[in-house]
Amino acid sequence: MKGKRLTAFLLTAVLGISAVQPVFAADWQSGNKLIAHALGEVDNKIETNSKEAFINAWNNGFRVVEADFTYTSDGVLVVRHDFEKDGSYTRLEIPADTDKVMDSKTFMETPAIFTQTPMRAVDLLSLMVEYPDMYVVTDTKDTDKKTVQKQFGDLVKIAKNMGNPEVLDRIIPQLYNKGMIDWIREIHKFENWIFTLYLYNNPDYDDIANFCKTKGIQTVTLHVDRATKENVSKLKAKGLKVYAHTTNRYLTMKNLLAVGVDGIYTDRIKPYELPWIGQENPRKLTEQTFTVGTEEVTLTTLDIFGKAHAPLRQMAKVGKGFAAVYNREYDTLNIQTGRSFQALGNEMMMDDSGRLITKKADFKVTVNNRPVYFQCYYVDGEVYGPVEEILALVKK
Predict the structure, then answer these.
(1) Over residues 121-139, mean pLDDT
(2) How is residue 288 annotated by DSSP?
(3) What pTM was computed for the model?
């Protein structure tokens, strides 16, 4: 695994400085060649738009997902493609004799493919607050002004009512016609936009490129069959990014990148699989040097939500050191300063594949039996914690 790590000795980090909130670039395409279609795959199931799919996408390294939106019969905006008998009912293994729009209560009580959790728009935005580096591309499908303004008006209201209007900066409206951007801007001035061409029978690529440049639209997406070198070049000549939808074939993606496409929508290709076609996994480990008192220590770090995280077993040897003892009965990990580190019991689960699959640890953390309020993570089975907070505990 060490051979797969990107080693980059950074400037020494000085501990004890107050933590700052992460700031993520408006250039959401940077490092994101993959968009998880319908929130991506989970348990080998696709197109579920489920809570589990969103979390699994983040765990696997996606930082951009696409979500479908529609309304229930009682007017609640939910994350689902449709309520058609031969559409989402069939794809989600839900019995239906006719096309029938569910009410919101029925929708929330009906799992996708038996086990997965359906979501309202408010549930998806809540996840975006919990995972503050995830971007969502909308697929709202409707093209009339009244419905479009209602959909995006509801998203704005939800974010504001939650007290988290900043989440709107990570929502990327997908536009189906030239009128939509002005209709939506009457509701909210989103930072990022995608113009999709799937409703255009014979798109004029020069005209589309000029329109997007004039309107401040940064990205165009088109079907893989239309992503020829000529068409892509016309769009990129105006400085646009180009994504193609939807493919689950690695060689198709490799060929699309070769003609200038910047990324794809996919159900199944994972960020950690990109090296198979000569691309980098955007998630990287770095070797970073920190100062603790008079001691300098180099740790293997992973950026999680804009903060350095490192393995507990590495940090346990710094300064006055600590032990980490897991209490199964209370599901608590207790950090005991001034003691020698012992195995956590998870060594047999550690994965040396280098995929950097990252999951929130669900145990509580205490320090010398007192509760603390930072989150630990499993990274390929190894427990990682926030460097700044933990090394502050072991200063001599």
Answers:
(1) 98
(2) E
(3) 0.92
